[in-house]
Amino acid sequence: MLVSFATPPVGSKIVMSEDSTARRTWIGALFAPDASTVDALDRAITAIDMSAVHGGDRNQSFQAGCLLLSHIRPDLVQAGRVVMEGLISRLQQSADCNAPEVRVLLRDSKFYLAVGLAKQNELARAQAVLQDVLVVDPANHQALALKEHLDRELMMLGVKGLAGTVAACAAAFAFYKLLRR
Fold this sequence. Notes:
Mean pLDDT: 80
Number of strands: 0
């Protein structure tokens, strides 16, 4: 039996404050869980029957994927990504893909896939997957908080890249001036 403690039940919404500090704290915990959360994740992950996850029960696959993607170890995040990508594919190809509970499971699976992609520094792909969530549910507080986080990360990467370019140009200019003397 799979115990889920780090993820909300399928289809539920976490009520999030409009306060951006609360959003950042929640997202921060998702990307950098504390030691007790990591220990609990380790215990839950060892209880997963992976043979039942791949191609098995949808909810069990979702919970296993969430647990794996919630971890900080890159190999477990990658395993969670594989589980979620497989689940998303199965859901999209299923005969009941338009049923409300399947659409909710698909939305939530894409959200957690976006988390995994972001943890693997595939920020552009994470944003694209997250956009799929927001098309279906534009008011999804979790997706909006993650989008805000990804936008901030991409902006910081751009600023760091620009600063590096400026520093390199300044160093090259100083070296040029030194050589011209």
